[in-house]
């Protein structure tokens, strides 16, 4: 029933396309296709696990299948700059597959060069590496493997909440540095029980996080454009907050669970961060550009934010001089939450399924569309 509601909602998210949009067609034009995949290098780790599918070496495990159907499959990790490997293939590729973990930035300029491009696929969830307006104007289809790694990300968020609350990182660093100073850890370590946790966004990941937090006996709040089903809301024990700026000062812990759009870009700026509870903890596995990078670093330094954790950066990979690498009281990692081995198996299978549908001229699952033949889904506008 839930899947049926999601599909119905997804169908309604698309309005009729503008007559000015010249669609390049969702379904594959006849003949062999040139498909380019951009993935991070597995290097020596690629051979250690046969299910390590999200690497350039394993390439989602679909090379043999694609080539058996007569298609060309180019895979690279070299994605940035005018002389990169990806740039060489932009003019004649038909399909581009990328991931949020090593994103190929699809700019308006690249879309203009890509005369044969029909389909942009995210192996995983997210589309902020793509200029959606330019993709829509070019009549392209953009899709993701919706739901493929929501469990992976929700579990990771719960872990990060606990890491911050219990002040885990300084204790770990003491051990590997040969130190022992209990006081330096304990003076800012707390229990999660009884704390107020608010999620900004309560879609698939946000709901799963709230469900996993319930046994910790927290006060659970959520802000979202849609109120969740009353039965589920009651089961979780979460309270809906209509006004984000009313919810935030109530929270000991804030978790970001919304997509990056033009409306959410820079949402947490210096002014909004200043209105949070002093000493708030923030977890952000959504998208880094939702936060003002420098404002977060300054708030961590001042103590306005007592701890910040996440796996998303702007840009990615993060440069060595990125301020979040050096700000105090952080528990940052590379973008890893959604690329567990289990998540990779799911998004590899989902990508293969969409390619198969594309070759056969069949529609994708409705919830997977971000742009369908030039029309952007409402939640991404």
TrEMBL record:
<feature type="binding site">
    <location>
        <begin position="335"/>
        <end position="338"/>
    </location>
    <ligand>
        <name>NAD(+)</name>
    </ligand>
</feature>
<feature type="binding site">
    <location>
        <position position="311"/>
    </location>
    <ligand>
        <name>NAD(+)</name>
    </ligand>
</feature>
<protein>
    <recommendedName>
        <fullName>Formate dehydrogenase, mitochondrial</fullName>
        <ecNumber>1.17.1.9</ecNumber>
    </recommendedName>
</protein>
<feature type="binding site">
    <location>
        <position position="224"/>
    </location>
    <ligand>
        <name>NAD(+)</name>
    </ligand>
</feature>
<feature type="domain" description="D-isomer specific 2-hydroxyacid dehydrogenase NAD-binding">
    <location>
        <begin position="159"/>
        <end position="337"/>
    </location>
</feature>
<feature type="site" description="Important for catalytic activity">
    <location>
        <position position="335"/>
    </location>
</feature>
<dbReference type="InterPro" id="IPR006139">
    <property type="entry name" value="D-isomer_2_OHA_DH_cat_dom"/>
</dbReference>
<dbReference type="GO" id="GO:0005739">
    <property type="term" value="C:mitochondrion"/>
</dbReference>
<feature type="binding site">
    <location>
        <position position="149"/>
    </location>
    <ligand>
        <name>substrate</name>
    </ligand>
</feature>
<dbReference type="GO" id="GO:0016616">
    <property type="term" value="F:oxidoreductase activity, acting on the CH-OH group of donors, NAD or NADP as acceptor"/>
</dbReference>
<dbReference type="GO" id="GO:0042183">
    <property type="term" value="P:formate catabolic process"/>
</dbReference>
<keyword id="KW-0560">Oxidoreductase</keyword>
<dbReference type="InterPro" id="IPR036291">
    <property type="entry name" value="NAD(P)-bd_dom_sf"/>
</dbReference>
<dbReference type="GO" id="GO:0008863">
    <property type="term" value="F:formate dehydrogenase (NAD+) activity"/>
</dbReference>
<dbReference type="GO" id="GO:0009507">
    <property type="term" value="C:chloroplast"/>
</dbReference>
<comment type="similarity">
    <text>Belongs to the D-isomer specific 2-hydroxyacid dehydrogenase family. FDH subfamily.</text>
</comment>
<feature type="binding site">
    <location>
        <position position="285"/>
    </location>
    <ligand>
        <name>NAD(+)</name>
    </ligand>
</feature>
<feature type="binding site">
    <location>
        <begin position="204"/>
        <end position="205"/>
    </location>
    <ligand>
        <name>NAD(+)</name>
    </ligand>
</feature>
<feature type="site" description="Important for catalytic activity">
    <location>
        <position position="287"/>
    </location>
</feature>
<dbReference type="InterPro" id="IPR033689">
    <property type="entry name" value="FDH_NAD-dep"/>
</dbReference>
<dbReference type="InterPro" id="IPR029753">
    <property type="entry name" value="D-isomer_DH_CS"/>
</dbReference>
<comment type="function">
    <text>Catalyzes the NAD(+)-dependent oxidation of formate to carbon dioxide. Involved in the cell stress response.</text>
</comment>
<dbReference type="InterPro" id="IPR029752">
    <property type="entry name" value="D-isomer_DH_CS1"/>
</dbReference>
<feature type="binding site">
    <location>
        <position position="125"/>
    </location>
    <ligand>
        <name>substrate</name>
    </ligand>
</feature>
<comment type="subunit">
    <text>Homodimer.</text>
</comment>
<keyword id="KW-0520">NAD</keyword>
<keyword id="KW-0496">Mitochondrion</keyword>
<feature type="binding site">
    <location>
        <begin position="259"/>
        <end position="263"/>
    </location>
    <ligand>
        <name>NAD(+)</name>
    </ligand>
</feature>
<dbReference type="InterPro" id="IPR006140">
    <property type="entry name" value="D-isomer_DH_NAD-bd"/>
</dbReference>
<dbReference type="GO" id="GO:0051287">
    <property type="term" value="F:NAD binding"/>
</dbReference>
<dbReference type="Pfam" id="PF00389">
    <property type="entry name" value="2-Hacid_dh"/>
</dbReference>
<feature type="domain" description="D-isomer specific 2-hydroxyacid dehydrogenase catalytic">
    <location>
        <begin position="65"/>
        <end position="338"/>
    </location>
</feature>
<dbReference type="Pfam" id="PF02826">
    <property type="entry name" value="2-Hacid_dh_C"/>
</dbReference>
């Amino acid at each position: 029933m839930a899947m049926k509601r999601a599909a119905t909602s997804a169908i309604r998210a698309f309005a009729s396309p503008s007559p000015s949009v010249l669609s390049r067609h969702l379904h594959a034009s006849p003949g062999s296709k040139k498909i380019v995949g951009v993935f991070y290098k597995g290097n020596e780790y690629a051979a250690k696990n046969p299910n390590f599918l999200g690497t350039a070496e394993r390439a989602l495990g679909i090379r043999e299948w694609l080539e058996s159907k007569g298609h060309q499959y180019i895979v690279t990790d070299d994605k940035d700059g005018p002389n990169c490997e990806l740039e060489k293939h932009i003019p004649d590729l038909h399909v581009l597959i990328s991931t949020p973990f090593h994103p190929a930035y699809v700019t308006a300029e690249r879309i203009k060069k890509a005369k044969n491009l029909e389909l942009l696929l995210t192996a995983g969830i997210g589309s902020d590496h793509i200029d959606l307006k330019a993709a829509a104007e070019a009549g392209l289809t953009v899709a993701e493997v919706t739901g493929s790694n929501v469990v992976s990300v929700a579990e990771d968020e719960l872990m990060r909440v606990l890491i911050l609350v219990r002040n885990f990182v300084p204790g770990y660093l003491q051990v590997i540095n040969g130190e022992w100073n209990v006081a330096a850890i304990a003076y800012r370590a707390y229990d999660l029980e009884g704390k107020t946790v608010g999620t900004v966004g309560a879609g698939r990941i946000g709901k799963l996080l709230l469900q996993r937090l319930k046994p910790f006996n927290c006060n659970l709040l959520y802000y979202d454009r849609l109120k969740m089903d009353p039965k589920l809301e009651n089961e979780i024990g979460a309270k809906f907050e209509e006004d984000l700026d009313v919810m935030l000062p109530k929270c000991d812990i804030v978790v970001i669970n919304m997509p990056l759009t033009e409306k959410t870009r820079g949402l947490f700026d210096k002014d909004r961060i200043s209105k949070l509870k002093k000493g708030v903890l923030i977890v952000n596995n959504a998208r880094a550009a939702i936060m003002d990078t420098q404002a977060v670093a300054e708030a961590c330094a001042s103590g306005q934010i007592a701890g910040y954790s996440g796996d998303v950066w702007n840009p990615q990979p993060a440069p060595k001089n990125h301020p979040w690498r050096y700000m105090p009281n952080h528990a940052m990692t590379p973008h890893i939450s959604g690329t567990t081995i289990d998540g990779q198996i799911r998004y590899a299978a989902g990508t293969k399924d969409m390619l198969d549908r594309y070759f056969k001229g069949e529609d994708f699952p409705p919830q997977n569309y971000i742009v369908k033949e030039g029309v952007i889904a409402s939640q991404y506008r």
